[in-house]
Here is the input.
Amino acid sequence: MASLKPYYRTKLGEAYLGDSLRFMRTLDAEHVNLVMTSPPFALQRKKDYGNVPPEEYTQWFLPFAFEIKRVLRNDGSLVVDLGGSWNKGHPTKSLYQWRLLIDLCDVVGFNLAQEFYWFNPAKLPTPAEWVAVRRIRAKDAVNTILWLSKTPNPKADNRRILQPYSQSMLDLLEKGYQRGQRPSGHDISDKFQKDNAGSIPPNFISAPNTESNSRYLRACKAARISPHPARFPSTIPDLFIRFLTQEGDLVLDPFAGSNVTGEVAQRLQRNWIACEIQETYLAGSKFRFPELPETRKLLLENKL
Here is the structure.
C-alpha cells in the first residue's frame, strides 16, 4: 500500500490508495459490519481497471476473502457483485462464480446466506459474437450477487428495506379476502391481511447502471479525469447497507473503484472505508462528496 494516510477523508469515511490485500492486513480483526464490493470480474478481455481470467479467479480472490473474513464482526456479512464470463471462443458460460462460491464456503468458511440477482435492463447485447452477430444466445444482462456471512446468523432486518405495496395488495388490505386452503395446497390464514407497512422485496433487483449526466461524470469531465468504466448503480449498495447494517456501523469496500459504496454509506449515516489501487479512479471518486474542499471548488467553478 502506498501509505496509511487517507487519500481523502469525510466526516464518516476514509478512502485509501493502494493494494487492498495489504491494506486490510493493517485493520483490526472483527471490526467491520459489512464488506460491500464489486471486484474486477473474470473477463477474457483485459480491462483498464485490471482483471484476471476465469481459470485463475478463485486463487486470486481467496487471499482477499480470508482477510475479509478476519476483519468482519461475527454477525457481519460480505456482499459481492459478480458478473458472468464466457468461455473463450465458445458460446458457453464459465463456471468461475460457482467455483468461487464453493471455495468461499468450503475453504474460507463463509456461509451462503442468500444469492441475489441483479438485472440490468440497460445492458448492451453482449457477448456480441453470440448475441448480435451469430444470434444464437440471449443477451447476458444478469449479475449474481452473493450474500455471505461469517456465521449462520448475520445481522439483518428486512423491515429496513420494505417496498411500497402494490395497488392489488392495498385493495386486498382494504377489502379483505377469503382465508382457507388454496388449490396449490397453501393454507392462507388471516395473518396475510395484516398491514406490515410494506412488502418484503425479493432477491431479484432490477436497476439500470446508466448515469449519463450525474454529478460524478460531469465533475470528472470538468477535471479531465477518466471516470471508472464499470460502476454499479447506487441501488445495489443502498439495499444491502440498509438491510445488513444500522446507522453508525462500518462498511468496507476493498475494490472501491469510483466509491459508490462510500457515497451511499455516507448518505445513510454509516461509517465507511474504501480502498482502490488505481489513483485516477480514486481521484475522481472525490467528486461524489461535495463537502470536500476540492470538490466544492470544482463544482462552483464549473457551475455543476
